[in-house]
Design brief:
0% strand; 75 residues; mainly alpha
Length: 75
């Protein structure tokens, strides 16, 4: 998705920097480990998805959606 750049006020940026520094100094800037990812798909579903990726079906479908609705595209 394309985004427009933001112009942030200098005083706001200073506050954000100060809070980031305080969080870092307190050791609270690390997110907890998410744990091991377990796919909800079984072997047959994973194989089917990989076939769609390898043969280009997924990429063609995504391109078509982007052409039909440019707001969904990064172009």
């Amino acid at each position: 998705m394309a985004t427009d750049p933001l112009d942030l006020d200098d005083s706001f940026c200073a506050v954000v920097d100060r809070v980031r520094n305080e969080v870092t100094m307190a050791g609270e800037d690390k997110a907890p480990a998410a744990g091991e990812y377990v796919s909800p798909f079984g072997p047959e579903e994973r194989d089917a998805i990989m076939r769609l990726l390898r043969d280009g079906t997924y990429h063609r479908a995504a391109a078509r959606v982007g052409e039909e609705d440019p707001e969904l595209s990064d172009q």
